[in-house]
Structures are given as structure tokens and as C-alpha cells.
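Students often ask why inverse folding is considered easier than folding. One informal answer: many sequences map to the same fold, so there is more than one right answer. In these notes we will look at a single instance of the problem. The structure comes first.
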């Protein structure tokens, strides 16, 4: 009997890229002999609802065509379900897919990972009962995220660059209390980011050393630096070459609490809530094709 795959497509991801690549993926999966049930979402709530129906249906696997927002929604249901999950990147950021090494601009190649059937279990961060698939941002980066989300132009990652420049004009270091596995650290900083995977903001390797299956959260603290130094650090984040910078601290733990007054945390590119947040880890909670 052929494997039965539910293909869940967010047509709005990547400003319509999801709608464009959905049929490409369906054809590729079907050509490989898989039985494909296509589900197209009409609103954000559909992602979780459909994922729950798919899990209950006894399908062999699910593939999600979307960006980090869609994966975040799907992961809430797929976590700890044991159902293998394929990521077909269609968003603007695609940081979860980047962290996994899924091809970003070749939907047929991403579909081939589902066909191949090779799976691994990856960790998720958890805040209250919410699973997070990439990084929690709490500081300068969350202000940039908020501003970039509010911008309608430009379309791709250039939004983050413009938002960074705009926020830099007025940003001042923040006072933090960061508690990692019960150990309290008081420090001023530009940002504190916590991730299971390395990336946010469309390929910025803020937690460059993060291993997505080591059962640990990676914590990056950028201590106070001049505006120019922070600006110069952003291109380094794309390559991960900020690692080792004297003002960049990288730590690890199983539980992390971040406190700083007046800051809203962002996770998987969307607002999570005001600090303080307590972040835990769900080791190996998501089973993914790779
Ligand atoms: N029809 C729909 N189906 C699912 N989600 C939708 C739909 N319309 C709007 N949304 C919203 O779109 C958001 C963005 O989707 P997604 O994150 O996949 O794309 P993106 O923002 O382009 O990519 P990225 O997050 O990687 O930058 C979702 O979090 C969801 O809230």
C-alpha cells in the first residue's frame, strides 16, 4: 500500500509563494507513488485544525507548505504526536527549514525529503504551553521584528535591514536578569535570544552553535556595544562570525528566564508576550524529514 501524505498548504505564505509551489509539491509526491491529500488553509486557525484532523486520520505523514508562522501553528499539534513532518519552505524567513538544512528554493527537492522518508527527532522550546520551533527574541531584535512585521515594503529580508536601521536610531541598552538552570545573571545587554535552532530573521545565526537535537537551549547575550558595532554585527550574524566577539556571550541550559522591563518577546517571528518569559525545552518533540 502506498504511503498516505497530507499536504497542508498555506497559500498566503511568502506573499503567495505557498499557492504557487503547492501544486509542484503535490505532483512531485504523487509522481513518487505517494497518495496525497491536499488541504489548503483559509485562515491561521486552519493550520492547527487540519493538522489535528490529519493526526487523527492515521495518515503516514504530513507536509506543510509555509513559512515559520505556519510551522509554528502546525508544531502546536504535531509536537509529541509522533507523526513525521515535512517542511516545504514557502515563507519569507524559513528559519526552521534553514536550521534543518531543507532546500529553500527548490520545492521539488524539499518534497524529495518526504519521499526519501529519512526522519529525525528535533527539540522544541516551550513557553507556558506553547511550542517554539526557532528562537525567542527579547530585546533590540524583538523591536526590529515588531517594526519589520508592520512594514508592507520591501517584500523580503530587506525589511529587517530597514527596520534595524530605524530601531538603531533610538535604541539604548536594556537591563536584564537572565536565569539559566537556576543561575541568576544580572547584565545590561542589547538583546537576549534563546533558541533550539540557530536562526531567526531570515538566516541570522543568532544562536550559531545551537544543535537542534541536543536537548538544550542556546542563549545568546549581546552586551552593550556602540550603535556602529551593533550595525556591523548584523552582517556577521548571517555568517555566524559574531561567535567569539568579546561582547557576545553564548550559554546553554535546560530552562531560561528572561526579565527586562517594557520588552515584548517574539518567537518564530510573531509576538509571544511581554517579558518576563520562562523558556523550557521539549527534547525530540518533533519528528521531521531531513
Ligand atoms: N490562509 C491562511 N492560512 C494559514 N495562515 C494564514 C492564512 N492567511 C494568513 N495567515 C497567517 O499568515 C501567517 C504567515 O504565514 P507564514 O509564516 O507561513 O508566511 P511568512 O510570514 O511569509 O513566512 P515566515 O514566517 O517564514 O517569514 C501565519 O502565521 C498566519 O497567521
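Output (designed amino acids):
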Amino acid at each position: 500500500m502506498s504511503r498516505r501524505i497530507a499536504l497542508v498548504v498555506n497559500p498566503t505564505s511568502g506573499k503567495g509563494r505557498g499557492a504557487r509551489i503547492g501544486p509542484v509539491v503535490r505532483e512531485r509526491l504523487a509522481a513518487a507513488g505517494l497518495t496525497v491529500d491536499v488541504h489548503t488553509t483559509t485562515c491561521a486557525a486552519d493550520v492547527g485544525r487540519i493538522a489535528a484532523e490529519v493526526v487523527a486520520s492515521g495518515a503516514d505523514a504530513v507536509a506543510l507548505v509555509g513559512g515559520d508562522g505556519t510551522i509554528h501553528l502546525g508544531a502546536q499539534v504535531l509536537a509529541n504526536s509522533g507523526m513525521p513532518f515535512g517542511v516545504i519552505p514557502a515563507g519569507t524567513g524559513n528559519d526552521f527549514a534553514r536550521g534543518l538544512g531543507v532546500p529553500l528554493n527548490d520545492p521539488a527537492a524539499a518534497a524529495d525529503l518526504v519521499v526519501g522518508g529519512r526522519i529525525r527527532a528535533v527539540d522544541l522550546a516551550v513557553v507556558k504551553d506553547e511550542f517554539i520551533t526557532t528562537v525567542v527574541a527579547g530585546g533590540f531584535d524583538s523591536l526590529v521584528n515588531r517594526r519589520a512585521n508592520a512594514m508592507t515594503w520591501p517584500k523580503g529580508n530587506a525589511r529587517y535591514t530597514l527596520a534595524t536601521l530605524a530601531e538603531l536610531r533610538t535604541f539604548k541598552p536594556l537591563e536584564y536578569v537572565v536565569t539559566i538552570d537556576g543561575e541568576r545573571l544580572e547584565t545590561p545587554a542589547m538583546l537576549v535570544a534563546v533558541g533550539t535552532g540557530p536562526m531567526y530573521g531570515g538566516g541570522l545565526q543568532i544562536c550559531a552553535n545551537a544543535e537542534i537535537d541536543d536537548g538544550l537551549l542556546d542563549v545568546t547575550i549581546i552586551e552593550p556595544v556602540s550603535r556602529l558595532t551593533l550595525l556591523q554585527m548584523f552582517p556577521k550574524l548571517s555568517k555566524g562570525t559574531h561567535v567569539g566577539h568579546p561582547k557576545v556571550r553564548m550559554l546553554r541550559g535546560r530552562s531560561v528566564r528572561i526579565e527586562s522591563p517594557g520588552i515584548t518577546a517574539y518567537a518564530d517571528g510573531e509576538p509571544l508576550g511581554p517579558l518576563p518569559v520562562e523558556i523550557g525545552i521539549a527534547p525530540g518533540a518533533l519528528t521531521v524529514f531531513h
